[in-house]
Amino acid sequence: MSIPTHSIYDSEGGVVPRVLLIRPQKETRVPIQDLESSTWGQVSIDAFAAAWSTEVDALPKFTTDYLHLVTGILLPIWKILPQQNSRVFRLQTNDGQKILGRVVNAHDIQTVREQLGLKNQVLSPEELVKLVLNERYTQQLPGGITLRRSFVANEPRIELVNAISLPERLLAAGCFTEIINWQKRVFIPVSDKAPAILAAVIEILG
Fold first, then answer.
1. Which residues contact 8 (CB under 8 A, 6 or more apart)?
2. Contacts by 116-122 with C-beta closer than 8 Å and gap 24+?
3. Residue range 97-106: average pLDDT?
């Protein structure tokens, strides 16, 4: 579906008219001139309805999202929680447990723990793997090594940046290396073994 949307200005101050392209799970704003040179085209209402229904039917019935909440008596600690996101959610789990809490962004989790006096507690390897893969979380590890998500050939990977100085020990722990653009890089396999490998890596790094 294509509908008009607000215009933008180019580098010379000219108006660039745009349209909003709507699909069942995606919206994209593009200049009209880009639309005219794309594969989008006008179709009949019946053809549109059939194509829309086909795409909707191909979507999964459920999707998985990750939400991090601080729960309990929040008023005494409200001011020390990150202020850029103050949404409060009321949830009910599949087993009937009701939860009321304040949303915390993934990148603020460690900061919140420290503000609550939990400085000696770090995220578990299981938590780190999920955050890195699902929410682009980055974590500084000992030795100046950064744990992050990278994309190689359009596939997400768990990368250990600046870890090439000790590849043998990391390879023995289950990591693997790959030369990309003439540079050797270190990765943790994306599998159910990733948390155990990450735990071994953290132990190696001390």
1. 15, 16, 18, 31
2. 116/77, 116/80
3. 81
